[in-house]
Every structure is written in structure tokens, then in C-alpha cells.
Amino acid sequence: MKLLRRKEGPSLDSRLAALLEAASLAEGRLPEQAVSGARSVAERAGARRNLSVDHTVAALAGATGSGKSSLYNALAGAELAAVGVTRPTTSTAQAALWDGEGAGPLLDWLDVPQRHAAGAGDLSGLILLDLPDHDSIRLSHRLEVDRLVELVDLLVWVVDPQKYADAALHERYLRPLAAHRDVTVVVLNQVDRLPAQAVDRCLRDMRRLLDDDGMQGVPVLAVSARTGTGLPRLRSLLQDRVSERKSWSARLAADVTTAATHLTTAGRASEGLPGAAEKPGSSGRGTEGAAQLTGGLGRALTGALSQAAGVPLVVEAVAKGHRHRAIVATGWPVTRWLRRFRPDPLRRLRVDGMAPQGAVAGGVTGAAGREIEGPGGEPGSEIVGRTSVPAASAVQRAQVETAIRDVGEAAASGLPGPWAAAVRHAARSRSQELADAVDRAVARTSAGATRRPRWWRAVNALQWLVFAAMVAGALWLGVLFAMDYLRLPQPPLPTAGVVPWPTVLLVGGALAGVLVALLSRLAAWAGGRRRARRTSRALRAAIGQVGEDLVLDPVEAELDRYARFTDALGRARAD
Ligand SMILES: Nc1nc2c(ncn2[C@@H]2O[C@H](COP(=O)(O)OP(=O)(O)OP(=O)(O)O)[C@@H](O)[C@H]2O)c(=O)[nH]1
Ligand SMILES: [Mg+2]
After folding, report:
1. What is the pLDDT of residues 161-172, one digit of tens each?
2. How far is the CA of 208 from the centre of ligand 2 (A)?
3. Which of these, 37, 142, 194, 522, could form a disulfide with 198 (CB 3.0-4.6 Å)?
């Protein structure tokens, strides 16, 4: 048995599991109706398989007066159902049971309380339902038919020579149930009312209509409930189906196919995107799109975010701030204090991790174009602090939005409508968080930019040494000057070559101090540039990561969801 199943394709179980998986993945993306339809198929399957699979439930369905009750009686061999002249006659379904032992729970599930024993014998295991008319003027009849048509294992459509082409039957039932070919039988009743050649014509016509409905290969039997013509064939057909015990699973398999088709068409339907309908079941975006996401578009996004976050400003401030602090630390002591009156350009932007009270984050805003408040929102937000980089301009915000939209569009290209919309939405889904995240990335990344190189300290010590020599020289000369003024004898004056030492100390100290300051300035200028370059790289990497976390990753997740959806649908449809 198992071997046979494997040959037939994936088991019902795995197809049902795949259908449920596809339904969960489609949740919130596709119309609720298609999703819940798939779920109810799975529920129904779970219920049916736990009930008697030794019984086959066949329903006689059709228009009023087609002879369902007459046929039901004829097959049961007893007048179980009322056959009337006033239309419609049957108002609730009733069941005839051949060897009905153990079928109680199944009939309870079907909610058919009226049951008759039809005996045993050739049709053992059959539960035959006589349904009300599907095209009834009474709503309750139609509801009862629709309810049971969804549940039974085998559908026997009873038509008569007058009404076999009725649109109600073909459009409302046969066409939508085309996947249920294997569990459908059509009976042309009342053939005793037709001349022999008309029967053939009728059958041919019916067959053609069924082909148009997508019901190729469905058995069409000509019978007469009144005279018994064709009944043995119908009986033996039912007997075969009952003894195979496969109708219940074939019906559920057809339900899975239909639900999967609904999910597929629901996935393609709305929005009417050009191309959406041209690629049924395609796994969507090719690798080209993926490369675009991680390549050009990702870079464009990082660029737009960087501009909006004021990266060029920060980078410039890093260079200038570095030079500023270098001069304060290594400049000529005589003039360096003047520097202290100028603000540190980097500190002014508050990118050094020292957020001032009430600082408001600038940077990009979300899709709504709203500025995001500074510290205080989430716990821990004060740890890194916010920058005082000026808020993004409208143009910069628009550029960020464009970059996000481009990412969404590129990722969505080639996807069917609703899924393309979901991908575009995913690209925007976290854009409200961008401003905050980018600002933090800037604050975090720039925090190291105020580190003081070790050589500053050495140069500072040297500066003070040289300054001390200059002061010593000045004092010495001052003393000499005072002694000369007071006409005191001059002490011996040591000289370096011809120049006296106090002069060497004063002039040499001043010159050396200025020279060291100039050389340090040169080094600080180069160092500032280097630091700016490093910061720029680090900022881009950090902001790129933010773009990846808040834009690209959600998009990838949605694409992955779509890929898993099509894969699950493929597995659900495989019949
Ligand atoms: N000539 C002829 N008349 C039939 C045949 N089958 C049923 N009839 C008649 O058609 C009429 C309707 O039969 P029913 O069996 O009540 O039809 P139904 O499909 O159950 O109708 P509803 O219960 O109203 O849906 C009755 O008068 C039957 O006697 C048949 O094979 N030949
Ligand atoms: Mg009836």
C-alpha cells in the first residue's frame, strides 16, 4: 500500500502540511478568504480522516425534480424518501446506509440525523445522501447542499434532459469543483422520457459541457429511476468506488489542490501589476535583484543615510577637532591658551558620546517625515547619547525615502502583486527607527575620535622644557641687566661660541618652541586627515549596517517568505 502511495506522488499528509504552511506564510499578505479557505481544508481533512474510512459518503445532488429522491429510493430498494409533485420536495438531507455499523460519528459530523438502513450486500460501506435541490427557491436548501457538497466523499450530480445545461449547476458547482473530477459522477436521469437517439445526443452534449467545465473524464451515465434503465451500471460504479475506499482521500486531495489554486490566484490577483499574471508560480526575483540589493542599491541607501546623518559634517569636524586639540596640547605655550577660547568643532556636534541635557537627535526621519525625539525614549538610550548634528534637510530625507523605495522596487520586481506590495512594505516597515539608529551609530562610531595620540604628551613636555629654557634665559638676562644698571661688577658670562648662554636660551627657546609648534601642527593636520578618513569608513560601515538591519534584512525576510510560500504551494499542489 505504502509503495503504491509513493508511486502516486506525495502523500495527502505532506500535501496538507504544505498547504497549511503556505497558508501561514500568506497570512497578512493574501486575502483572508484564501488563507482561511486553506486552513478549513486542513481542518476538514483532520476531521474526516479520524472518522470511518471504511465508509464512502456519496451525495445525490441536483436541481429540483431531476429525480434525486427517486434514484435514492431505487438504489436503496425501498421508498425511503418522499417523491412529490410539488416542488421542491426534499428539504433536509437524509442518509441510506449499507452496512452502517460504525458510521454514526461520520454522520454526526455530516450533521445528517435522518438515517435509514438500506441493507447489506453489493453496496456494503456506502452511505448515500439524498440532498435538497441546489437551485432552490429556499435558501435553507441551498445552504444545506453547499454545506454537504463540501464534506462528502463522492458527488453524484443528477440531471434531467430539460435542465442538464443549467448555468447554476455548471458555474456554481462543476467549474469550481473541476479538481474534484475523480470524485464526481454525472447521472442523466429520466432517459425513459427520451427517444433512443436523443439520449445519445443528450449524453454527447452533456460530455461537451463537462469538458468545458474542466471535468474531462467524468463518468456520465444515462439512467431512469422509473424504469431502472442504467441502474445496474450506476450500482456497479458505486460499488467499485466504495470497495476501493479511496474516495475520501481523493476528495481531500482535490480540496487541497483547489485551496492551493486559490492561494496561487489570490497571490496573483490584486493590484493588477503588469507582469504579475505572466509569471505564475515563478519563484520571483532572480539573482540579479539580489545582487542589486547587496550591491548598488545597498550602497545608494548607505550614501543617502550617511548624507542625512550628516556624515560629511561629522568627518570634517573630526579632522578639525583633531587639529584643534593637537594645537591646545602641543602648541607654543606662549600663545596656545588663546585656542582654548575657541570651541572644539567635534564637541559642538556632540558626537563624542557626551550628550548634553535635552539634546535632540537630528538626522533622518521616517516615512512620515517626523523628527524623532532625543534621549528618554527607550531604556538604555542615554548610554550612547545623541549627537547634535543638524537635522536632515527635506532633500536629504527625500533621498533616503527614494533609496528605500528603490530597494523595495528592485526586490519586488517580478513578484506577483500582493507579494510585491508586501516586499515594498517590508522595505519601509522600520523606516521610523532609522533616524534614531543612524544617529546612535554616528555617536557610537565617532566616540573614539577624541582619543589623544601619545606623542602629544611628549611634545607637550618638550614644549614646556623649551619654554622653561626661554624663561630661564630671560631671567638670566634680566639679572644681568639689573646688575649693569646698578653698576655692579658683571659676573663671568659663559658663551656658546660667541653668543652668551642666556641669549642662546631665550632666543633658542623661543625659536625651538615655535618650530616644535609648527611641526606639530603639520603632524596634526596629517593626523586629522587620517582620522577623518578612518572615521568616514567606520561611519559608512556602521550606517551600512543600520540600513541592512532596518531595510535590507526585512526585505530579504519577505523575499524568503515568498520563496517558502511558493515552495510550500508547489508541494501542496503536487498531485
Ligand atoms: N419519467 C420519469 N420520471 C421521473 C424519473 N425520476 C423521477 N421522476 C419524476 O420526477 C419527479 C421528481 O422526482 P423527485 O425524485 O422528487 O425529484 P428530486 O430531485 O428529489 O426533487 P427535489 O426533492 O424537489 O429536489 C417525480 O414526479 C418523479 O416521479 C424518471 O427516471 N423518469
Ligand atoms: Mg427529493
Report:
1. 999 999 999 999
2. 27
3. 194
